[in-house]
TrEMBL record:
Residues 613-623 have a biased composition (Basic and acidic residues). It comes from the Eukaryota. It holds the Pfam family GRDP_C. It comes from Salix suchowensis. This is GRPD C-terminal domain-containing protein. Residues 624-634 have a biased composition (Acidic residues). InterPro entries: GRDP-like (IPR009836), GRDP_C (IPR057518). Residues 605-634 are annotated as: Disordered. Residues 485-663 form the GRPD C-terminal domain.
Amino acid sequence: MSATRNGSHESSDVLSTRSLSEISEVETVRLSVDLVSAARKNLGLLRTASESPWLHERATLLEAIRRYDELWMPLISDLMEGSSPPMVLPPLDVEWVWFCHTLNPVSYRKYCEKRFSKLIGKPAIFYEENEEYSLMRCEELWMKRYPNESFENEIGINSSNLQDLHVVHDHHEDLLSEVEKQRHVYSKFSWPYMSDIVYLIAARQRYKGFLYVLQRFADGCPSRLLPSLDILLIVIPTVYDEDLKEMEGDMGKMVGLWETVRSIEVEETKKLWERTFDQSYVKAGGVIEFGGAASVVKPPVYWEVSDRDVNTKYKSLLPRFLQEACVFVRLNSRMKPMQQERRHNFLRLQIVRCHRELKIDKPISSFSADTWKKVTHLYCEFGTKGLMLEVRKHGGGCFKTSKLEDSKTFLWNDLLRAPSLTLETHLDDKQVRAVASITPPAQAPYLLKCVPDKVTDDSGAMVSDVILRMNNYKPQEGRWLSRTILDHAGRECFVVRMRVAGGFWRRGGETPSAVKWEDRIIEIREGSWSYVAGSIGRAPEKIVGTATPREPPEHWQAAWCFSTGEELLISWESSTSMSGLNFRLRNQTSSDPLVKLLRGKKMQYRARKISSKGKEHEKRENTEENDEEDEDDEGFLTLVRFTEDNPTGRPTALLNWKLLIVELLPEEDAVFALLLCISILRSISEMRKEDVGSLLIRRRLKEAKLGARDWGSVILHPSSSSSTISSPYLQPWYWNARSVIAPDHGGDDATKQPAVNNSPVEGGDKLYKKGIMT
């Protein structure tokens, strides 16, 4: 350590840059903690605490602090053998208080030294089987030492001990304040990729670099240093390690989790990091986001950790993976000033695969050799393969042409194997340096949309002369409206069929008859069409979901029974405004409201707009009690699930029944969400006596070419300044759904009726209106 300490006075003028991979523990501090496993354990604790509302009630916290200070800490202190903590785990409320206390390393160390004359470390219990054993062992030791104290926190708001608890509160006011501040700390670390081993290994390497900078240069720095989120994730499990005792002074020079951040602290940290490692301090998944930072911009995507994917049972539905990507550029300071003819060159960023219309251009003159400047901050599907950087030269004349001078590609697979998930390249004869960083891909919400398709018969074959000839001119019985479900990559994954008529069709004659409303069932088949000639084919055979209309109860206008076990009721107080729509979902076997439909884009799906200054603000949130609905929210419904862990509800899907689009978390059933959309659209079309969602379209509409402007492949972070930020294809689809989902038939309105008439073979409009829009 002495050599490192002496190095802290090294002149910054002669500072030589280091590579992150070159930093060893010898140059910082050797830690006995398995940082990666400890970080994953802490993420689990943070999530559990976030999903346990009872844990944050004031009376519960007061009792938890008493139990922590008077019972737990003396117990574990006596159980310690030397400096090694015993392999026991306290109950959740005590563990939460303990965790929050250690987030302030200087305060926690002083508390331990003053009370117990030693640092109370935490045991290395990182795996579920060890946790269960350690908890049981702790309960045995607890009950033996404190026979009159319950192992679990049983305090309630109506407890008779509240007066005594206020005494504890006065004695531990600072600790109570610290614990209350950490209630929402999980929101900072809730990104799915943060528990990925690859991400944590990269974060551990960056943490070593942060310790290196902290030890060598913090003494000469006028401000504190600011850890980024990935580094902070590794800092948390080390603050209670005995190995860091000699760094107590250094840890005090680090900005705390919820402390107000000054701009000078941000800039000083960035400069020291860049001068030490010659890399940008900010990277994908390693942003600076602290309580007092006014520059924080919320990400535009709702991307939650899901414990399970219930849709794996549908073999035709492939998961979607998303990752964060950042690109920074800096001019090479070791090169001579750029030649005159290169001053007007510009840098273009494109995606290797998908979204071929995406072009982000930046003039070379906007970069400098003094610091790294961010070119873009994106959320990309892993299927996009990578990023392309091109240096282009403006062409002459009046035409807006350009000539390719140089190009380099960052492939996601290469970045995943790179140290710290970061790669550097040079362009334009080494005049331009570019660094790209990513986060590991993590499963993201499914994106599904319905597109019109041809009418089918009872067997699932399209009504067509082709099918008739293949069946030796045997008449085709029945009429079913059909829709094809496409995923985010345009793959066919389901076929939706809606029965509208019986009877039969044969060459030269049509004698179908409309069926009653109660017989107009909806079915969803898993898989894609089996094409026999061009776009003519047969629907897949496997039926995975059905919705059956039934007679609605009093005060309701429509009712549907789903094969998934739910029942949907719909009422409409006014036929002139969508705000009069009411929905109720209930389980057919239980009266408990386990799932609910809210009108509009609610909770995490609230639309966020970007001001002219690049700052973000949220639109007014529509509550259940507020019937006033934004025009942009028409057709949108938020599906919310209620569980014991989430009694306040967790949004699992966003539906647009008018455009027939669904975004859903992996834990939500895709078939259930699609049944909801279709049944609601059919019911409202019946109530309004008009074709609200273009159900009368009975032919294929031309879709935008795959790869041209894929609706979920790339989402631009609001912090990325770019002229393309106004493009709806670089925003979440529900910010401007009509523009994003519009079929390519010459108009922007996705519900516009095509000018081309439907084939007489499929039947006239009256057949489909009868019994539904009469």
